[in-house]
Write a structure and sequence with these properties.
With about 750 residues, the protein is an alpha/beta fold. The chain has 36 helices and eight strands. The strands form two sheets. Strands 3, 4, 5, 6, 7 and 8 form a six-stranded mixed beta sheet that branches. A two-stranded antiparallel ribbon has the order 1-2. A hairpin with a 2-residue loop joins β1 and β2.
Length: about 750
């Protein structure tokens, strides 16, 4: 009975219909799953297809049993005589259909594995700790509400931050990764630009209280999908952090990176359990990234909102503290208020979580305003140990290192640039370092040009390029001024550009304009000290020392006695000018005493301070024997420095020879070297103020060689100054009261 029934099922091709239907149904479901995201189909679409396919299966079996396809059309099986039945021919057709559908399914499966990767493939063993590097591209916002963009961006950033805490994994920085948002560029090109061998990308869809996140890890070299996964969860903080942890673990596993215990703890930490607090935090992060004063104020309010919802949200306290710093640097919050607010929020963050890199980044920056270099460095090192691959942390470490730690500074800054080459602040810092320390001027210029092209609103890049144009190897003070002033006209309230324009005006001995711009900065930002610093330099340059003393007194009143170390050279010059040599000695020793002056050993490249200020002051005090001892030590130090220089360091060598001639009081040689430096190497920045302020040059200025040097310098500056004045008049920017400064 049963065997007869089975035979009848076979005769009527029910089994073949079932096989063909299952394969075709599976293929339809796979295709729908793949095309759902690119076509932005609603979440319910794939579910509906699966239900329809499932419902259709028994219907197909019933039709196969009850009906037969004959040459005369569809007829009930009971009405077709066995002698007239064509089920055998139909079966052969079904066999061909099954083979065809199987072939299509196989082709799709291979294509999906290579191009879409909705299933997991195991990576091969080509990934090692040394080659493990990744960029996290901003996940695509698939939600119907575009305002949810901050959420998908925020999730991407949080993943990036989590991965950056893994020491053996090189992670491209946020700015560089987010530069490719929505551009649909070839992943291989992105990988080449970011210097990574894998890319993590995906999508986020919020629909009511449901959340779907898709992530896929792709090998840059050949586009191979190493791993992918989709997560359908409730829209809760717990589920979001679970997904982040799962993705981080999968990435580390696929890239063969072994997590250390502290790294395990870092990726399993749940910073908040409040979804609304998390939303506010993500929105604040996105807004603060612009560093514009108005946006920073909005971000501060959002961080505060997050903290009202969750007073235990340590990450929000840390980011809030750092945002107050950015607001001081880019806006008008008073330094004392900034310091109090930063300290308050840093303390709260670290009480909740004492392993928070951003809290130590903020703390390191805060110590700068207390002029405590030792604690600044300690905090930067703590941040680095917690997040050794975070470009912001690396940049903080670079800034905190002392000027003498050149190798370590370059290591940190070059790594930050390698991880986040499209980050404008880091790229600009790197270019400035190449200019000041590496003499790699063309490379620095290329970096600055690319930075300006990518981010035309980033003022420090313009200021740094102007700095490059004004000195070695270009020496184009007039062109540097025009470049900086054009940027200033586009952003007339930017403090970096105000400083740049003022510096170059002083370079060409152009009075009037620097003071005008400095006072404008003070008027715009009365609580920011940048305008006052600019004014101080201007007053010293114009030898208006009593007014400069008043500015310095206000700085000391605001910051305390520690500020003297920051303005050590300026205070020394003013004390020397009024004949108070004892105070000049004490000021010079402030902050440096134990390193050079008290030990009698020259270290840490402080020989310039000895040459330009300390030795001349000792001579004024009649301490000639002590001055001679220091002069001998300085000579030995400089000769050693010159012997260790590499080939191609001609400019560095000639500068050392110039300082050596000053130390030896060989002023004829000084004059000869000045011509080489100024006219051959085009080092044209700062000469007017150097000859005026650097005390050591007073001896040279009294020599028979100085008048000719000064005359040639003035002729060269006059030509460039004339070009600047002409430019300002053409722009309608010249003021009549500045005419007096031309005489």
């Amino acid at each position: 009975m049963v065997s007869n029934f089975i035979n009848e099922l076979k005769r009527r091709n029910v089994f073949k219909v079932a096989t063909a239907y299952v394969i075709a149904g599976w293929l339809i479901i796979q295709i729908v799953t793949v095309i759902e995201q690119p076509l932005a189909l609603p979440d319910w679409f794939d579910t509906a297809i699966i239900i329809l396919v499932a419902i259709g299966f028994p219907i197909a079996l019933i039709i196969a049993w009850a009906f037969e396809l004959t040459p005369d059309g569809m007829k009930k099986s009971d009405e077709v005589a066995i002698a007239e039945s064509v089920t055998n021919q139909t079966g052969k057709k079904l066999n061909k259909l099954i083979i065809t559908v199987l072939s299509v399914a196989l082709v799709f499966l291979l294509s999906e594995r290579i191009f879409f990767a909705e299933s997991t493939f195991k990576a091969d063993d080509s990934f090692t700790v040394q080659s493990a590097s990744i960029a996290v591209l901003p996940f695509v916002n698939m939600s119907s509400d575009e305002e949810n963009e901050y959420f998908s961006d925020g999730l991407s950033e949080e993943l990036l931050n989590a991965l950056a805490k893994i020491e053996d994994l090189q992670v491209a920085g946020r700015t560089s990764s987010f530069k490719f948002k929505g551009q649909n560029e070839d992943l291989k090109l992105i990988g080449e630009q970011l210097g990574v061998n894998t890319i993590l990308e995906g999508s986020v869809r919020k629909d009511g209280n449901r959340l779907r996140i898709t992530a896929q890890l792709i090998r840059v070299e050949d586009g191979f999908h190493i791993w992918s996964e989709s997560y359908d969860r409730e829209l809760t903080v717990s589920d979001i952090f679970d997904i982040q942890e799962e993705i981080s673990r999968h990435v580390s596993e696929e890239l063969k990176v072994q997590l250390l215990p502290e790294e395990e703890l870092a990726i399993t930490t749940r910073p908040t359990q409040d979804i609304e607090a998390y939303n506010a935090y993500l929105a604040a992060n996105q807004i603060a990234a612009t560093r514009q004063a108005d946006d920073l104020e909005r971000a501060i309010e959002l961080y505060k909102q997050a903290l009202r919802l969750d007073p235990g949200y340590a990450d929000a306290y840390a980011k809030l503290a750092y945002t107050y710093l950015l607001l001081h640097e880019n806006g008008d919050i008073a330094v004392e208020e900034m310091k109090e607010l930063m300290q308050e929020n840093i303390d709260k963050a670290l009480r909740i979580n004492n392993s928070l890199p951003m809290a130590f980044v903020a703390e390191s920056a805060l110590y700068q305003y207390y002029f405590d270099d030792e604690k600044r460095l300690e905090s930067a090192i703590k941040a680095y140990r917690l997040a050794p691959n975070d470009p912001v942390v690396l940049n903080t470490y670079y800034l905190a290192l002392r000027a003498d730690s050149l190798d370590k500074k370059y290591e940190m800054l070059s790594k930050a640039y390698r991880l986040d080459p499209l980050n404008s602040p880091i790229a600009t810092n790197y270019a400035r370092y190449l200019i000041d320390r590496k003499n790699e001027y063309e490379k620095a210029n290329e970096i600055l040009n690319r930075t300006i092209e990518r981010n035309p609103d980033y003022a420090p890049a313009y200021a740094t390029k102007a700095w490059l144009l004004r000195d070695v190897p270009y020496g184009q003070l007039d062109e540097a001024f025009k470049f900086a002033y054009e940027a200033y006209l586009r952003s007339p309230d930017n403090l970096d550009l105000m400083q740049s324009v003022s510096d170059i005006a002083r370079d060409v001995d152009l009075a009037g304009l620097p003071e005008h711009i400095a006072r404008k900065g003070i008027e715009l930002y009365p609580n920011n000290n940048a305008g006052y610093r600019n004014l101080l330099l201007t007053l010293i340059y114009e030898d208006r020392l009593e007014e400069a003393e008043e500015i310095l007194d206000s700085f000391i009143e605001l910051y305390g006695e520690q500020v003297k170390s920051f303005f050590r050279i300026d205070i020394t010059y003013m004390a020397y000018s009024r004949g108070d040599y004892e105070q000049a000695i004490e000021i010079l020793k402030f902050g440096n005493g134990t390193e050079v002056f008290d030990t009698g050993v020259i270290e840490n490249n402080f020989h310039e301070t000895l040459i330009w200020f300390y030795i001349p002051v000792l001579e004024k005090l009649g301490r000639n024997e002590e001055a001679e001892e220091w002069a001998i030590k300085v000579e030995d130090f400089m000769l050693k420095q010159m012997a260790e220089m590499d080939e191609g360091e001609d400019y560095n060598r000639i500068v050392e020879e110039f300082d050596l001639s000053i130390t030896r009081k060989d002023y004829k040689k000084t004059a000869e070297l000045f011509y080489d430096i100024h006219f051959d190497f085009n080092s044209k920045a700062n000469w007017p103020i150097i000859f005026q302020k650097e005390i050591v040059y007073f001896g040279f200025k009294e020599s028979e060689f100085y008048p000719e040097v000064r005359a040639k310098l003035d002729d060269d500056l006059a030509e460039m100054r004339s070009n600047i004045v002409k430019y300002l008049k053409e722009k309608g920017e010249w003021r009549e009261e500045w005419e007096e400064g031309l005489n």
